[in-house]
């Protein structure tokens, strides 16, 4: 069931174009906060080689398979689980701020689920399919603000369509041609979607993609009223989470921490501080 689908009357600011929404001049009103902006440039044009709907459908299939496996292992958190409720409450605050980054997200059927595992990991698949593992919440002892930074970061990967661009880069134009012929009824689109979906949990994003997601996620979280400095404390925790931990540090294997990452976040925290203050009623 879609827990976060937008209601028909919630299409505020639908005429905004992605990113241009964040470039409105400040000071239109003395009471209005300065609109901070993180500079991440335009999303990769290569992503257009892979049809967005195809990848989102593939992601939905892969996500349901993952949930089915977790349910069979009695590892899927029930609706009443307090940590799941906490995650869904955070998502409900973040989701209203996603559309300016990707107009398609207005149509996404957002889902958030929690899987019982010592694995330190979380992700958001194309189309808004989010999963957290209990290990990342428990082992790192994340606050709500830090959890929002992780969720915002993962949502940003989906909003900026990093997986779509990454698949295009790694498989080249032959994939696009094959998908194009299938979309025209010349092949088996279902098999192609299944093939793509199987790659989504193992994709390695570039350093540029990670920086992009850090900054977009930071702004999403600030707009939702989560403390921007939590992005710094989160990655400090990540950096300290070395050595042997039960279940491994899956998140760090795909999202390596380091001084440069923390430094960039520290430089951008002041840019979104006013957004946070406005969201908290202190603007």
Instruction: Give unreliable regions as ranges.
Output: 6-36, 184-194, 244-248
- Our estimate of the beta-strand percent is under 5%
Tell me the total number of β-strands. 3
Shape descriptor reads: globular
Domains (count): 1
Major β-sheet profile: 3 strands, mixed
User: Could you give the order of strands across the largest sheet?
Assistant: 1-3-2
The H-and-E topology, N to C, reads as: HHEEEHHHHHHHHH
**Count of individual helical segments:** 11
Summed over residues and divided by their number, the pLDDT gives a mean of 78
How does the helix and strand content classify structurally? mainly alpha
Name some characteristics of this structure:
49% helix; 11 helices; mainly alpha; globular
Structure description:
- This protein is mainly alpha-helical.
- The protein has one domain.
- Helix content is 49%, strand content 5%.
- The chain is built from eleven helices and three strands.
- The protein has helices spanning 52-72, 82-94, 134-139, 144-159, 162-171, 173-183, 189-197, 207-223, 230-240, 250-254, 259-279, and strands at 111-115, 122-125, 129-133.
- The protein is globular.
- It starts with 51 loop residues before the first helix and ends with a helix.
- The model is unreliable at 6-36, 184-194 and 244-248 (pLDDT under 50).
């Amino acid at each position: 069931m879609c827990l976060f689908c937008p209601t028909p009357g919630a299409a505020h600011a639908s005429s905004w174009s992605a990113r241009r929404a964040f470039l409105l001049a400040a000071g239109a009103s003395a009471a209005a906060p300065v609109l901070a902006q993180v500079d991440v440039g335009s999303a990769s044009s290569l992503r257009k080689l892979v049809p967005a709907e195809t990848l989102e459908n593939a992601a939905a299939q892969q996500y349901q398979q993952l949930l089915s496996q977790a349910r069979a292992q009695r590892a899927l958190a029930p609706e009443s689980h307090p940590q799941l409720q906490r995650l869904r409450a955070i998502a409900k605050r973040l989701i209203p701020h996603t559309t300016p980054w990707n107009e398609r997200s207005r149509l996404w059927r957002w889902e958030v689920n929690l899987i019982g595992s010592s694995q330190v990991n979380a992700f958001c698949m194309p189309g808004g399919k989010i999963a957290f593992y209990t290990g990342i919440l428990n082992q790192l002892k994340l606050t709500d603000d830090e959890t929002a930074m992780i969720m915002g970061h993962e949502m940003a990967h989906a909003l900026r369509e990093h997986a779509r661009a990454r698949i295009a880069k790694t498989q080249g134009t032959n994939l696009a041609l094959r998908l194009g012929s299938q979309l025209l009824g010349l092949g088996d689109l279902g098999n192609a979607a299944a093939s793509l979906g199987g790659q989504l949990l193992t994709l390695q994003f570039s350093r540029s993609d990670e920086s992009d997601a850090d900054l977009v996620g930071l702004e999403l979280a600030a707009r939702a009223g989560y403390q921007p400095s939590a992005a710094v404390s989160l990655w400090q925790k990540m950096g300290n989470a070395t050595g042997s931990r039960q279940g491994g540090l899956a998140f760090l294997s795909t999202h390596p921490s380091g001084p440069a990452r923390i430094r960039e976040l520290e430089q951008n925290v002041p840019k979104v501080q006013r957004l946070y203050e406005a969201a908290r009623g202190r603007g």
